[in-house]
Design brief:
The structure is a single chain. With 640 residues, this protein is of the alpha/beta class. It has three domains: 2-140, no CATH class; 145-257, NAD(P)-binding Rossmann-like Domain (Rossmann fold, 3-Layer(aba) Sandwich); 272-453 and 485-512 and 566-613, Rossmann fold. Helices cover 48% and strands 15% of the residues. The strands form five sheets. It has a nine-stranded mixed sheet with strand order 10-9-8-11-12-13-18-23-22, with helices on both faces. The termini are far apart.
């Protein structure tokens, strides 16, 4: 019968509900007298038989007026009960008003209360039973994966409510650290302690744990993830609290566990005065605006409401993407008077740089444009020199000529005692700014040096994620290789704050925390995917880890400081380094010869000049440029 009811058109289902409610109304009127007087057909009813049609005429339209026939029962929430109480109460009150006006027959006062209670029970109870049946039928007809929700707070409850209408997942239990919640019931699910997880996973055959903890600290999140890493389940998380509150993501749009969840740390609250000093109300330019750091700089700068934001980028697609994203941000901000100007251009075009800065009256430049992938720059050293060294030189000179107030170079920990071309070009870029700053002038030139940023383009994290998705193997260069990591938003935020403390020629270091062994990172990512690493100790594991050796120019460990001198600043996570540098005349001479060697594609000379300019540069391999090696093979072949 119910199946036939469910297959009827919506109009007919509403008519049947109205008929059912009409019978419930008649039964409630009869019960109000029968219960009050203790008789099956009380004599008083003979004088007020007119109450039966009146009840239907008054109460059914009242139910319709309050919206009782609009909700789809399977998706109805607790507001359905409110609607039933409102409709029933209003209907009974209207009937009482009609009876008082007519004064026909005797109606005991308690009968009105009994009628209200019985009608509530029949109408509300009937709908709740029908809703439960519909949901059960949906679960049985749609196979769904059982999931355990970690976190029985507000976010967890919202998630379970959302999942109950999902076609993919069925929540089976809550897990929470709070011992006071254990054995309690939330939305029909028992709350258990974390120690019960292995048993819950086995009992429900769960393959997924959802972390419903959007507002906990990074440290606590890491501890929880470490405790879950050995379980045979995949772990996913809710969006961050900022994404939920801004409306950017829904509560049921859970995500893969990011490396930020594994390695991220609790960042220091930003100093708003430092953030706004070089940005708010000013004309700001970001070179490399479409890159990993450049994109995040643009987001954060726009949120600080500059007068103008100039996006300088050589990739048309990257420029288009960041322009579209910032346009959406502007719309969400209420379209303040901020000019966002996308400019296609390369930092090795010195005249275009000057024209952009001069025409748009740029006051602050964040120079993030660079080639940063170590092996690629190693195989293309002259292009690396052109973009990283001369791009920085031309951008800084253009800033000085255009009267820019502050110029900030985004540098790298690979500039410290470099063993690769990329690191040497970054160190030479720092020396150029230090030399130019020594010449005086109104433009404050400074550098900010930090390590790897999590999930940036070309980094190890997206590579590991893709390798795990494909079933492995996961490739690690060396079992002992270590790196410093920082989230992209934190790095960008600290760069902006460091720029506010620049006096000229400053070299700022960002506190990167503890270095991370890449092998440990790979193992954690595998385990949090519900899989096991396969190695000598675990030959039956799911994902193999292979070591393919350090690539050209790579080091086992990176550093942030060349010497031993660094001083604190106004910000606890920003240090000011003091490092010796050659005089500007020496740097100029090296740059002139480097320019000539690069134009002649004289690879040995380029390397020799880099080693001369950057005293700490100690390459551990020969020249790796593809063209130079191909030419060398041809020469050897002709000699034979």
């Amino acid at each position: 019968m119910l199946e036939k009811f469910l297959n009827l058109p919506a109009v007919f289902r509403r008519i049947l509900l109205i008929l059912g409610d009409s019978l419930a109304v008649l039964a409630a009127v009869w019960a109000s007298f029968a219960i009050r007087l203790g008789e099956w057909w009380p004599y008083l009813l003979q004088d007020v038989v007119w109450l039966f049609p009146l009840a239907i005429i008054v109460i059914i339209p009242t139910f319709a007026a309050v919206g009782l026939y609009r909700p789809i029962l399977r998706y109805a929430d607790e507001s359905l009960l409110y609607t039933i109480v409102l409709g029933t109460s209003a209907g009974i009150l209207l009937m009482m008003a009609v009876w008082v006006f007519l004064r026909e027959g005797v109606v005991p006062r308690s009968s009105w209360l009994i009628c209200w209670l019985v009608l509530m029970a029949l109408v509300g109870g009937g709908r709740l039973v029908l809703r439960r049946y519909l949901r059960r039928r949906f679960r049985l007809s749609t196979p769904r994966a059982p999931v355990i929700v970690y976190g029985a707070g507000e976010a967890g409850a919202q998630l379970v409510n959302a999942l109950r209408y999902s076609t993919e997942f069925e929540p089976v239990a809550f897990v929470d650290d709070n011992a006071r919640l254990w054995s309690s019931v939330v939305l029909g699910l028992k709350v258990r302690g974390p120690a019960k997880l292995p048993r819950l996973i086995a009992r429900h055959e769960a393959k997924l744990i959802l972390l419903a903890l959007p507002s906990i600290s990074h440290q606590r999140r890491r501890e929880i993830l470490e405790s879950l890493a050995g379980l045979p389940v995949r772990v996913m998380a809710l969006p961050a609290l900022a994404e939920l509150t801004s409306g950017a993501r829904r509560i049921d749009e859970f995500r893969e566990i990011d490396v930020e969840d594994i390695l991220g740390r609790d960042s220091v609250r930003p100093d708003q005065a430092l953030l706004r000093a070089r940005v708010s109300g000013k004309a700001v330019m970001v070179t490399g605006a479409g890159g990993s750091i450049g994109t995040e700089l643009c987001r954060q700068i726009l949120a600080l409401r500059p007068r103008r934001l100039v996006l300088f980028e050589r990739s048309e697609y990257a420029l288009y993407s960041i322009e579209q994203e910032l346009g959406t941000m502007l719309a969400n901000m209420g379209q303040p008077a901020i000019d966002v100007i996308p400019i296609l251009g390369s930092v090795i075009n010195r005249r275009r740089l000057w024209m952009v800065m001069e025409r748009f009256e740029v006051q602050t430049v964040y120079h993030a444009a660079a080639y940063k992938h170590v092996p690629i720059v190693e195989h293309n050293p002259i292009e690396g020199v052109r973009n990283n060294v001369f791009g920085t030189l031309y951008a800084a000179e253009a800033a000085i000529a255009a009267g820019v107030e502050t110029f900030v170079l985004v540098s790298s920990d690979k500039a410290v005692r470099p063993t690769n071309v990329m690191g040497a070009t970054k160190r030479l870029s720092e020396l150029i700014l230090q030399g130019l700053a020594g010449q005086g002038g109104a433009t404050r030139l400074c550098m900010v040096r930090f390590g790897n940023v999590l999930d940036s383009s070309g980094s190890v994290v997206p590579l590991f994620r893709e390798q795990i998705r494909k079933g492995g193997p996961v490739t690690v260069t060396h079992p002992e290789v270590e790196r410093y990591f920082m989230t992209i938003p934190e790095a960008a935020q600290l760069v902006i704050q460091a720029s506010a403390m620049a006096r000229g020629g400053d070299l700022f270091l960002l506190d990167m925390g503890e270095s991370v062994r890449i092998l440990d990172l790979a193992i954690r990512m595998i385990r949090l995917s519900g899989l096991r690493p396969r190695d000598r100790e675990n030959p039956d594991g799911d994902i193999e880890i292979q070591f393919n050796g350090l690539r050209s120019g790579e080091k086992l460990r990176e550093e942030l400081l060349i010497g031993a001198d660094d001083l604190p600043t106004e910000h606890p996570m920003i240090r000011r380094a003091s490092e010796a540098h050659p005089p500007w005349s020496t740097i100029q001479d090296c740059i002139g010869r480097l320019d000539a060697a690069a134009r002649d594609f004289d690879y040995p000379a380029v390397r020799a000049i880099l080693r001369e300019a950057v005293a700490e540069y100690q390459p551990e391999n020969g020249i790796e440029d593809w063209i130079w090696r191909a030419e060398a093979r041809q020469v050897v072949g002709l000699g034979r």
